[in-house]
Amino acid sequence: EIGGGTGVNLQYYPDGLEEVIVTEPDSGMKKQLDQKFHSLGKTEFKTVNAKAEALPFDDACFDTVVSTLVLCTVEIPTLSVQEIFRVLKPGGQLIFIEHVHAHDNPARARWQKRIEPVWKHLAGGCHLTRDTLSEIENAGFHICQIHRQSLRKAPSFIRPSIRGIAQKA
Q1: 143 bridge partner residues
Q2: Could you read off the pLDDT of 95-114 as tens digits, one per residue?
Q3: What is the pLDDT of residue 44?
Q4: What's the pTM value of the predicted model, to 2 decimals?
Q5: CA Rg value for the chain
Q6: Averaged pLDDT of the chain
Q7: Which of 1, 103, 108, 135 is the most exposed place for a label (fewest CB within 10 A)?
Q8: DSSP character for 32?
Q9: Per 3-state DSSP, what percentage of the chain is helix, strand, and coil (rounded to 5)?
Q10: 29 alpha carbon, distance to own chain's centre
């Protein structure tokens, strides 16, 4: 998993996995991740201090990469998605949930563009106007599943999201 944050997703990983590596570049969040691993008894989990733009892993070494609300915050989304592609084995999957630009709602898209400069500073570098699906496709992934949904309980300018699975050919 890239950008594991405080470990919100850990509870959703099934038992019996051989190894789970969670990258997190923020040392404070990485400390919380390590504590959560310990409290959950997840010995097969480990954290690595790494940005998505520079993953310290060999080519084609992972079966799956998970990204949950991370690609909006990375510094260079194109490079991040290329790195994910690089570390996946052929046939490997990228499982993602990302909030995105409101292409289908011009009024909301205008609000996203207006709010983004301030929002980035308040929300850890989060960009509201990224076209993450295009980034994933342009990196060479085949989109196997895609769902456009609204993130419930989020402010309206954050709600547009994509959820899906992309595969490395």
Answers
A1: 166
A2: 999 999 998 999 999 999 99
A3: 85
A4: 0.93
A5: 16
A6: 94
A7: 103
A8: H
A9: 30, 30, 40
A10: 15
Q: How far apart are the first and last CA of the chain?
A: 20
DSSP letter assigned to residue 34: H
Stated length of the chain: 169
**Token pair for residue 112?**
């996203």
- What is the per-residue pLDDT across 73-97, written as a single tens digit (0 to 9) for each? 999 999 999 999 999 999 999 999 9
Examine the pLDDT at 136 and tell me if it is beyond 90: yes
**Residue found by looking up tokens 């898209």 in the block:** 109
Dihedral angle of Cα 145, 112, 119, 35, to the nearest 10 degrees: -10
**Strands (DSSP E) found in 30-159:** 45-48, 62-68, 88-99, 141-150
Query: How far apart are the C-alpha atoms of 127 and 117, rounded to whole Å?
Result: 8
Whether 68 shows a pLDDT value over 90: the answer reads yes
Contact (CB, 8 A) for 156 and 128 = no
State percent of the chain over pLDDT 90.
71
Cα distance between residue 30 and residue 75, in whole Å: 19
Could you tell me if 40 and 107 are in contact, meaning their C-beta atoms sit under 8 angstroms apart? no
Closest-CA residue to 84 (of 23, 28, 31): 23
Place of tokens 């996995």: 17
